[in-house]
Amino acid sequence: MADTNSIGKILIIIGLLFIFLTALLGLFWAPTVTGSWTAPEAYRILYWHVPIAWVSILSYIFLFIGAISWYSKRKEWGWKLVVVGSELALIFGLAAIISGTIWASAEWGVPWDWSDLRLNTFALLTTVSLFLVLARESQPDGIDTRDTLSAIGLFGFVLVPITLIATTWYQNRHPGIIIPQNTEESGLSFEILQLMMIGTVSFIILFVGLSIVSYSVISLESELQNEQLKFD
After folding, report:
1. Does 26 reside within a domain?
2. Which phi and psi (to 5°) does residue 15 adopt?
3. Does residue 30 form part of some domain?
4. pLDDT beyond 80 at 226
């Protein structure tokens, strides 16, 4: 357990270092975009915002796998994945919302557009993860609590495909799927894709590290509860 936790901490440090490198490259190396951008320099925050939003989806995959495993075979590791997934979904969901509103304030002139489908479904996803985290902390652990929270987690996962294809169904302000191409119309270049991938890999490393540490902590909590039950 200790070795696994150490690996997680190392991955967290590596991920943070590369995330910092992504920020530096985004500020001083990435090309300036052209075209119909209202605030072309503000786009540089997207090197964090887009990878964070992508990685947040991994949290809901954890949540989905864990909920299914808990419901089907009452697997303890399944419940732990539900907990890990909800906690990381909250962290990365809030980070995506905060970075997105900063960019939107510069590009759109307002931090949020309530008529945009993707924005609202992603906000609802983050609200679901917030509810799961708060409910777990406030409710006694037991079969009924786990069943209820797992069901809510499955509902949250249903929103994931809706969020992913929201701009295909109904595109308002939020940009659609970015296809890098070096044209005056799009203002995007291959260098932008390269840096976006560096950012994505960096946040994935951080995500894996946080997942390992969080899972280790939850396992220790479970062991302590089992030991306490022996003396009760």
Report:
1. no
2. -60, -45
3. no
4. no
Count of the separate structural domains present in the chain? 1
Asked whether the beta carbons of 188 and 178 are under 8 A apart, the reply is yes
Calculate the dihedral angle through the C-alpha atoms of 122, 126, 129, 131, rounding to the nearest 10 degrees. Answer: -120
Kindly state the helix (H) or strand (E) to which residue 199 belongs, with its residue range. Answer: helix 190-231
pLDDT reported for residue 119: 85
What's the pLDDT at 58?
93
SS3 188: strand
- Confidence at 186, pLDDT banded by 50, 70, 90: very low
Residue 182 backbone dihedrals phi, psi, to 5 degrees: -85, 80
**Segments forming the whole domain that contains residue 96:** 9-15+43-220
Q: What is the dihedral of CA 21, 27, 29, 32, to 10 degrees?
A: 150
Looking at the domain assignment, is residue 211 inside a domain? yes
CA-based Rg of the chain, rounded to a whole angstrom?
A: 20
Is 33 within a domain?
Answer: no
Among 230, 218, 232, 63, CA closest to 141: 218
Residue 182 DSSP class? B
pLDDT recorded at residue 215? 94
Question: For 174-200, what is the mean pLDDT?
Answer: 67
Residue 214's nearest CA partner among 102, 82, 111 is 82
